[in-house]
Specification:
2 copies of one chain form a homodimer. By secondary structure, chain A is of the alpha+beta class. The first copy, chain A, has one domain: Phosphoribosylformylglycinamidine synthase subunit PurS (Mth169, Chain: A), CATH 3.30.1280. The first copy, chain A, contains 2 helices and 3 strands. The model of chain A has no long low-confidence stretch (mean pLDDT 96).
Chain lengths: 80, 80
């Protein structure tokens, strides 16, 4: 069983309204923050015979189910 | 300027309805997934004089603004 973390963020060319809202809030509280982006984080374990097959499944479900590829990008990290 | 990624996930003892829904969907599509959790991912850059101060700010804003500590946990990663 292999465990993955998938980080999903809006594409740079898409207006990230949540990110703008969080940045404005943090600035209004006096914090020096910049370039705030808000997305989703999915953790899952995949049963597969080897890591390559598990990674292929993780990529496939990210592209087809978890992530809206029109407006979002994802990164997959292997967790221990 | 220091860049951080903040992974926010529901606490283990809290029912993760999004995670359950995603897991059921992926299983119905024929994928062998387990232990699916869905949370949020926030990326931000912080202006500070050193990394320790920036990390302290990241922890503070995570606890006070980004994360609902009653039902969520967070992890901070330093990005390059």
């Amino acid at each position: 069983m292999f465990k993955f973390g998938i980080r999903i963020l809006p594409r740079p060319e898409v207006l990230d309204t949540q990110g703008r809202a969080v940045e404005a809030t943090l600035k209004s509280l006096g914090h020096s923050v910049l370039e705030t982006k808000v997305g989703r984080y999915v953790q899952l374990s995949i049963e597969a015979k080897d890591i390559a097959q598990a990674q292929a499944t993780a990529k496939k479900v990210s592209e087809e189910v978890l992530c809206n590829m029109l407006i979002e990008n994802f990164e997959i990290e292997v967790l221990k």
